[in-house]
Design goal:
Blueprint: H1 5-15, E1 20-26, E2 29-38, H2 42-49, E3 69-71, E4 78-83, E5 91-102, E6 106-110, E7 120-132, E8 135-147, H3 152-175
Antiparallel strand pairs: 1-2, 2-8, 3-4, 4-5, 5-6, 6-7, 7-8
Helix pairs in contact: 1-3, 2-3
Length: about 180
């Protein structure tokens, strides 16, 4: 990533608003949950959700440009990022594999974000959209289990804050006035 491992995640953790929580930790994993109310209907929020280049934080990308991020929201497809560059430096990153989709309601990915990608763990990111008043409630749950080189209780709050940062970015993008 453009940021340096856990130090980048720690800096993001300090900047993110507190609308999230680590809901469980153990010796082999953790669970984080973030939730936000967005003043837009679920279909509009979902359409934005599957366009991460419009709301994902550039500091939390490998290429430094979220325009390189895409989600093909069909089971078996991917949330990927292209790493542009000269032929020897070009590449790509898989952030997650799509395992469950109900447009306008839910998107579930299996995969590792950030520094967790190099560890031997299973990770599931679940994004659920539900109608709420005049808008949509979006809840992110991230479940991580397996072998982690950093103690789960140590890294979980950092991961939680980074995911909340992304959720706040989704809210800002969804509620921004049209150009």
């Amino acid at each position: 990533m453009r940021m340096i491992g856990l130090l980048g995640w720690a800096g993001a953790a300090m900047a993110a608003p507190a609308h999230s929580a680590v809901t469980a930790t153990s010796d082999v994993g953790f669970v984080t949950e973030s939730e936000v109310e967005i003043a837009a209907d679920a279909d509009a929020v979902y359409a934005l959700l599957v366009t991460p280049g419009r709301w994902w934080a550039e500091a939390q990308s490998y290429s430094g440009d979220t325009a390189n991020m895409t989600i093909d929201a069909r089971a078996g497809c991917f949330f990927c990022e292209t790493l542009p560059g000269k032929s020897e430096a070009a590449g790509s990153v898989e952030h997650g594999r799509v395992v469950y989709v109900v447009p306008g309601r839910q998107l579930r990915l299996s995969g590792a974000l950030g520094p967790l990608q190099a560890d031997a763990a299973i990770r599931t990111l679940d994004l659920v959209l539900t109608p709420s008043g005049k808008g949509t409630k979006v809840r992110i749950t991230y479940v991580v289990g397996g072998y982690l080189r950093t103690r789960p209780a140590q890294i979980a709050p950092l991961v939680d804050q980074v995911l909340d940062e992304q959720l706040q970015g989704l809210k800002r993008a969804a509620e921004a006035p049209p150009p």
